[in-house]
Amino acid sequence: MSVFLITFTGLAEQRPEITTICMEHITFGKDASKEAIVTWRSKEGNAEGYVKYWPANSDESQAMLQANAEIHSYRYARDEVNIYDARLTDLKPNTLYNYKIYCANKESSEYSFYSAPEPDSDIGFTFAVFGDSRGGYDVYGQLMRSAYEAGARFVVFTGDMTDGAVQAEWDHWFTAAADTMPNLPLMPIHGNHEAMSNTYFDQFVLPDDEKNYSFDYGMTHWSIVLDNTDELVEEAKEWLTEDLAASDSTWKFIATHKPFYSSAKKHDMKSSPAQIYLREVIEEGGVAMSFCGHIHNYERTYPLLKGKKAEDGITYIVTGSAGAPPYPIDKVEDFSARAVETRHFTIYEINPDMIKATAKAINGNIIDEYIAYPRN
């Protein structure tokens, strides 16, 4: 207990300043070609807040739209946490948007982000996936910058942003990527270290019930499953079955925090809840790739069906060391095509026919490259 108190006290003493507009970030609605949500924190608890946004290639004065913010607040220890959410609607597909935040008579810098191509579009794009920062804020911030510089239009973060979901940790996490987060939408996955806390759910606006949710970005359909407990995974089975059946996207992806497969012995995943309850669902539902974190290393499986190599199988990716200490890989299992113990991020260039995937260590070295194909 004394170690925790010392650590927390040190963290609290160095906390970022809470200003009128800070910790800005973007998430998408159900259809990322039509809707995005800009969220920020403020020291002001009951002020007028709104976002003005417009296509970057248009006349700002003629094309400007305004989205008024909804405000909600909560207390964490002695903190009054004021959150503003502005829902940007009527977006044009595959368009670069500029925007500014206004709150309590203050104005933010000008930011920009891309709306998605339409769901049935064959327009290619780049995205990134990584996770498990766990207090490694500098590493996380550097990887966000690397993903942005690599051309990613959005990031899927595989969970465990924090060690214990305390508000001070979230303040550091958002601040570490303050130079990229307002311009790089991020879709989060709830990790076990988020502990089902309101500090996670109140700081992100997500589709559906925010626990299990899905969204479409161009030719991709993403199903995000909350897997904190075996019971939650079992409960998600029906939702996931229906969600995948309702999508005819070229590429279907599932993202969880915990992996289906892993060679690391830190956590034995040979009979993971995801395998027990969800593997058959995603195999029959046309999922091409699975993304997760939890295990602090990088690993890619061969395409698998029922745990065996198969040409038309699912490729499973573990990308879980965006700041958290890497776990050793004691023995590379037969299902594994590549396993590396290092902090890293993964980047994907996608078109209708294939994905060119690259995993890069924090120093920029390429640790894996491969091509993936949609399921038949």
Please describe what this structure looks like.
This protein is α+β, with helices and mostly antiparallel strands. It has two domains: about 110 residues, Immunoglobulin-like, CATH 2.60.40.380; about 250 residues, Metallo-dependent phosphatases (Purple Acid Phosphatase, chain A, domain 2, 4-Layer Sandwich). It is built from eight helices and 23 strands. The strands form four sheets. Strands 1, 2, 3, 4, 5, 6, 7 and 8 form an eight-stranded antiparallel β-sheet that branches. Helix 3 runs parallel beside helix 4. The longest helix has 16 residues. The N terminus is likely disordered.
- Percent strand equals 25-35%
Number of strands: 23
Please write the CATH class name of the largest domain.
Answer: Alpha Beta
In CATH, the topology of the largest domain is named Purple Acid Phosphatase, chain A, domain 2
> What distance lies between the first and last C-alpha atoms, to the nearest angstrom?
54 Å
What shape does the CA trace take?
Answer: globular
Q: Low-confidence segments, ≥5 residues, pLDDT <50? A: 1-10
Structural domain count: 2
Mean of residue pLDDT values: 94
Gyration radius over CA: 20 Å
Question: Sheet with the most strands?
Answer: 8 strands, antiparallel
The SS-based structural class is alpha+beta
Features:
376 residues; alpha+beta; Immunoglobulin-like; Purple Acid Phosphatase, chain A, domain 2; eight-stranded antiparallel sheet; seven-stranded mixed sheet; 8 helices; 23 strands; 19% helix; 34% strand; disordered N terminus
What secondary-structure arrangement, pairings included, does this model have?
Layout: H1 2-13, E1 22-28, E2 36-42, E3 49-55, H2 60-63, E4 65-76, E5 79-88, E6 96-103, E7 106-107, E8 111-114, E9 125-130, H3 137-149, E10 155-157, H4 167-176, E11 186-188, H5 198-201, E12 213-217, E13 220-224, H6 230-245, E14 251-255, H7 273-277, H8 279-284, E15 289-292, E16 298-301, E17 304-305, E18 308-309, E19 315-319, E20 336-340, E21 344-350, E22 355-361, E23 366-372
Parallel strand pairs: 9-10, 10-11, 13-14, 14-15, 15-19
Antiparallel strand pairs: 1-2, 2-5, 3-4, 3-6, 4-5, 6-7, 6-8, 9-21, 12-13, 16-19, 16-20, 17-18, 21-22, 22-23
Helix pairs in contact: 3-4
